[in-house]
């Protein structure tokens, strides 16, 4: 598919008050670990926030869309947008050339907002060409303001989720270290109380002591991880 893609950088605009529908979507995002699914759910999604025909989201090489087979197109656009540097908002004008247009070729205007630079996270809204005039519809300041507000909220949500995940990991490591320490102490005490009756028993006891020492070292490393330190 031959395409002409024009990328226009968009300056930030003032964020307007949000609608109840917007707040409902953000509340859902705060309670959902799968942001791609929550942003493109059938009953309420980002396509409901702006006048558009469809919307999509990309993150960590994955994509989800609200209508049609737009996942592949969204990933293509996310790759194209790597050249935009630190710009967080971009308008894209697309035009299919050289053959009969497919369904995804009819989306000629795209508003793209990056919410996670390190994960190639983009919000994408798609509009089709105006059937009556043949003109490409433009994104207004109000459209960009809503998109910008969602980007800011998503940044906060992603940060909160990452913090919660780190805390959960730390707590799990601490519990593991504690659970390992108790039986290890029992083994250590039992080994020290063994009576040595012959040379063979002496060797067996030494093997147990050495194994317990290795386990204790591993437990100490796990405890360091629980404190946020590298062993």
Mean of all residue-level pLDDT scores = 77
Strand order in space, largest sheet: 1-4-5-6-2-3
How many beta-strand segments?
6
Helix content: 40-55%
Shape verdict: elongated
Give the CATH superfamily of the largest domain: PHY domain
Query: What is the count of structural domains?
Result: 2
Report the order of strands and helices: EHHEEHEEEHH
- Poorly predicted runs: 1-16, 96-104
CATH architecture of the largest domain: 2-Layer Sandwich
Q: What's the alpha carbon Rg, rounded to whole Å?
A: 28 Å
Treating each run of at least 4 consecutive H or I residues as one helix, how many helices? Answer: 5
User: Structural class of the secondary structure composition?
Assistant: alpha+beta
Main β-sheet description: 6 strands, antiparallel
CATH topology of the largest domain: Beta-Lactamase
Q: CA-to-CA gap between the ends?
A: 52 Å
CATH class of the largest domain: Alpha Beta
User: What is the strand content?
Assistant: 15-25%
Describe this structure in words.
With 231 residues, this protein is α+β, with helices and mostly antiparallel strands. It has helices spanning 20-30, 35-39, 71-80, 141-193, 199-226, and strands at 2-9, 54-59, 62-65, 89-97, 107-116, 121-128. It has a six-stranded antiparallel sheet. Helix 4 (141-193) runs antiparallel to helix 5 (199-226). It is elongated and about 90 Å long.
